[in-house]
Design a protein that fits this description.
Distance between the termini: 57 Å
Shape: elongated
Strand content: 15-25%
Number of domains: 4
Order of helices and strands: EHEHEHEEEHHHHHEHEHEE
CATH class of the largest domain: Alpha Beta
Mean pLDDT: 89
Low-confidence stretches: 185-189
CATH architecture of the largest domain: 3-Layer(aba) Sandwich
CATH superfamily of the largest domain: NAD(P)-binding Rossmann-like Domain
Radius of gyration: 24 Å
Strand order of the largest sheet: 2-1-3-4
Number of strands: 10
Helix content: 25-40%
Number of helices: 10
């Protein structure tokens, strides 16, 4: 059984109550503002304006319980900071790849564990994941034209989004990956990324560059690139000469300028 049901609330322009002072209350205000909501620090005003959510961050136990009861009796869902027993909902640790949002929650068991999982996911997920989601949204009409039936669209998307697929969400995608996939010109996730090295030290690679090397189907490297840097690429990635073309994801390394 689920310990809680994860939901995504659309809060842009909506009133949300945040009560309390101090670091915890400020953190909740920043979170609510990040979602585009209107923060109200008066419970009565929030109730009058139709708020649906209330965050309560009083340090005093009695004040926290009293305001939680008042808010709940008015029909609001309540989160009381650091008091899971008083909460109707908990706030997750968030990985933001807008419009993709990944929420990691532990039902209040351990905020530290949720944070550790979020940080691991931050390293795994490409920054361009949100752009891929938006490109798929923008391509809905073209997708229906290319694959008229719902079952065809599901099969096509499943194949494209699976590991190693043309639109694998764990790989960096070119800006035009979705249109090219739909046109049928890119059945193997053809993409050519150029990485200009800052030095010949593998530890100077950015996370994105290291990810690209680890994902590459083919590698183009001029003489002078050391073996310990080339070893960051997949062992089975094809080694191609400068100027060569290849199916799949190709990474071209260039020496420091």
């Amino acid at each position: 059984m689920l310990a809680s049901l994860p939901l995504f609330h659309r809060l842009a322009g909506q009133p949300v109550i945040v009560l309390g002072q101090g670091e915890a209350a400020d953190a909740k205000r920043r979170l609510v503002e990040r979602a585009g909501a209107l923060v109200l620090d008066d419970l009565a005003e929030g109730i009058d304006k139709g708020a649906r959510l209330a965050f309560i961050a009083h340090e005093d136990e009695g004040s926290a319980q009293a305001d939680a009861i008042r808010a709940r009796c008015a029909g609001l869902l309540v989160n009381v900071v650091d008091r899971p027993a008083l909460c109707d909902f908990t706030t997750p640790s968030i990985v933001d790849r807008n419009p993709v949002i990944i929420a990691v929650g532990t039902a209040g068991a351990s905020a530290g564990l949720a944070k550790a999982l979020r940080l691991r996911l931050e390293r795994l997920l490409p920054q361009g994941l949100g752009a891929l989601a938006q490109a798929l949204f923008d391509a809905r009409a073209a997708l229906k034209a290319r694959f008229p039936t719902g079952s065809d669209r599901r099969r096509a998307l499943d194949a494209a989004l699976e590991e190693g697929g043309a639109l694998d969400p764990f790989r960096e995608s070119a800006d035009d990956a979705v249109p090219r996939w739909l046109e049928g010109a890119d059945k193997g996730n053809v993409a050519h990324h150029v990485v200009t090295l800052r030095s010949l030290d593998p530890d100077d690679l950015t996370l994105r560059e290291a990810r690209l090397l680890g994902q590459a189907d083919a590698l183009i490297a001029p003489p002078g690139v050391p073996q310990d840097l080339l070893a960051r690429a997949r062992a089975d990635a094809a080694r191609l000469p400068v100027g060569a073309a290849s199916e799949g994801l190709t990474v071209e390394l260039r020496l420091p300028e």
